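@channel sequence for tomorrow's demo:
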Amino acid sequence: MRPRWISQLEPENPIALHLLGLVAFQAGKYEIAEELITKATEIKADHDEAHNNLGTLLESTGRVEESITHYEMSLAIEPGIAEVHSGCLWSRRSLYA
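structure tokens (generated this afternoon):
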């Protein structure tokens, strides 16, 4: 569950939601982080950084196949980001390990 104060700040600002999601992720609040970053991608479907970070979050919680989907979405938007290529490759590798 997302704290009420977040809804009062910038409830439709994808950049704010993404950044708040990253703070929640770093604090180990994975459910809140996923909700916030997902909302950011729903508002701004071409937010490549949010898709990449959602991929990282999902991978870190063991949801590798879902993470690959978001890494691929990020790459479709911004294909030149080496960090995303690396994350996607590591996720794919872990599926077959």
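heads up for whoever presents: Residues 74 and 90 are 15 Å apart (CA to CA).
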